[in-house]
Amino acid sequence: KVGDIVSLNSGCDLTHATAVKICGVDAPIQTKTVSVVTVKVGVGTPVGSCAVEVLSTPGTFKSNTNITITP
Description:
Elements: E1 5-9, E2 17-22, E3 25-26, E4 29-32, E5 36-40, E6 48-50, E7 52-56, E8 59-62, E9 67-69
Antiparallel strand pairs: 1-5, 2-3, 2-7, 4-5, 6-9, 7-8
């Protein structure tokens, strides 16, 4: 739900992540390592199943599965 901290795991190097969007809404980065980035679900993120995008200097990565935002 909005305000929750979530961990996103990847096989890609996440240390270059500059921003994360959930359902197109900014999700501020809290921490990041090579394989995990934690973000706060941003205000305005709609309830339901949403795609996740990680923006980084090499490019934008889109999740292959959706995240579910609850009320």
